[in-house]
């Protein structure tokens, strides 16, 4: 029996999700003209703004460092500390986009060696490796 | 070459999405608000699903959410016994309206001057948003928790649904005009002003009634328990979703089932057509919202119709075209010649 061949409708990109660090409603967003004029009653808005930018930059730098650390881990032996005092070691492969899962190979578990495995981030308390 | 529906998944919520609403069409497009049990309702651009902001302030699950017509205000109903009114441009909380029990439903009048609320205390309340300190007007009569309350007939009447009844009230006299009884729990209600149609779901039934007289017009049976249904603005189609995780699309005139779509990983709690009818959104127990095209393959929002001969040079990135797939679909994909990237189902994170 032939099933009709169908192509999924192409999309330009996926919908953007929350940025993860703010509640959104960008002050310079598309609907900025609709914002009411708010009198500046808080202390020195410029100093506050630079503090915000500083924090932003710090967060971006920390994030970049973390992502680079993940890249550096590829192919290396990593030791994971999981719940209930369980420790396992494996060769690190990759994480997924949200860093919700760690793809590893040669996972040494108390009940044997698993050739390929996915470790859920929520199950991992900490991990360590030597570059 | 036939096109297959590519739903757009909007992630961000961490608990079930229980209600969603579109605004009207504004000079900035239209918008979508979602109510979630994580207590953080979100505002999104309606045609793309792009997140705009999260309304922070509720201390419990948000059961109902709505936008006013021009999407300048939002209202939410929550398990923390309050309804809140928000500035939908800045995200700031404008008003907190205290209730005596869980609030389930909120609705603005056309002019955004009044807010209707209803909830577990079985009372309908009408707040004058220009006088937030004033006591609301109350309408009693329901004998079980109110699940949905809507203004109708140009805000001259009110429709409200509790577990087993749907009631029509006159706004001016605050008295009941008519009621409908059901022997099954009413799961959802939608009001279509053009044509004064009321869409009610209960059990596996999707029923259409006159919003003026409550007289039945027609009804359809779905293959599974339906939690929500929506009628297309031009009344050509209706979509419905429920406990079997699927979305069903029916021809409104003939009742014929046109399509069914898998994709959600949990029961569907709410489904609504956009104000222009070009897409519909579904909210699910799986914590996601999904946007679906009414006409599959049309260029609209993030969906781009690309003909096979067309040079894809204009799209700088490779085409991302895969929805969450089922087992049958994976075989099809393997045999297709494409450079599409398969987006993994995003894990919903806090």
Automatic annotation (TrEMBL), chain A:
Keyword Cell cycle: no
Residues of the Sm domain: 65-131
Pfam families in UniProt: Gemin7
Superkingdom in the source lineage: Eukaryota
Locations listed in the record: Cytoplasm; Nucleus, Gem; Nucleus, Nucleoplasm
Signal peptide: none
Coiled-coil intervals: none
Record keywords, A-Z: Acetylation, Cytoplasm, mRNA processing, mRNA splicing, Nucleus
Family: Belongs to the gemin-7 family.
Subunit structure: Part of the core SMN complex that contains SMN1, GEMIN2/SIP1, DDX20/GEMIN3, GEMIN4, GEMIN5, GEMIN6, GEMIN7, GEMIN8 and STRAP/UNRIP. Part of the SMN-Sm complex that contains SMN1, GEMIN2/SIP1, DDX20/GEMIN3, GEMIN4, GEMIN5, GEMIN6, GEMIN7, GEMIN8, STRAP/UNRIP and the Sm proteins SNRPB, SNRPD1, SNRPD2, SNRPD3, SNRPE, SNRPF and SNRPG. Interacts with GEMIN6; the interaction is direct. Interacts with STRAP/UNRIP; the interaction is direct. Interacts with GEMIN8; the interaction is direct. Interacts with SNRPB, SNRPD2, SNRPD3 and SNRPE; the interaction is direct.
Record function comment: The SMN complex catalyzes the assembly of small nuclear ribonucleoproteins (snRNPs), the building blocks of the spliceosome, and thereby plays an important role in the splicing of cellular pre-mRNAs. Most spliceosomal snRNPs contain a common set of Sm proteins SNRPB, SNRPD1, SNRPD2, SNRPD3, SNRPE, SNRPF and SNRPG that assemble in a heptameric protein ring on the Sm site of the small nuclear RNA to form the core snRNP (Sm core).
Name of the protein described by the UniProt record: Gem-associated protein 7
Classification of source organism: Eukaryota, Metazoa, Chordata, Craniata, Vertebrata
Gene name of the record: GEMIN7
TrEMBL record, chain B:
Superkingdom of origin organism: Eukaryota
GO molecular function list: kinase activity; RNA binding
WD repeats: 55-96, 96-137, 139-179, 261-293
Any one annotated GO CC term: SMN complex
Keyword Repeat carried by entry: yes
Keywords: Kinase, mRNA processing, mRNA splicing, Receptor, Repeat, Transferase, WD repeat
Keyword Repeat attributed: yes
Protein's GO biological process: negative regulation of transforming growth factor beta receptor signaling pathway; spliceosomal snRNP assembly
Coiled coil: none
PANTHER family assigned: EUKARYOTIC TRANSLATION INITIATION FACTOR 3 SUBUNIT I, SERINE-THREONINE KINASE RECEPTOR-ASSOCIATED PROTEIN
Family under the similarity heading: Belongs to the WD repeat STRAP family.
Protein name (record): Serine-threonine kinase receptor-associated protein
Organism of provenance: Macaca fascicularis (Crab-eating macaque)
Organism taxonomic ancestry: Eukaryota, Metazoa, Chordata, Craniata, Vertebrata
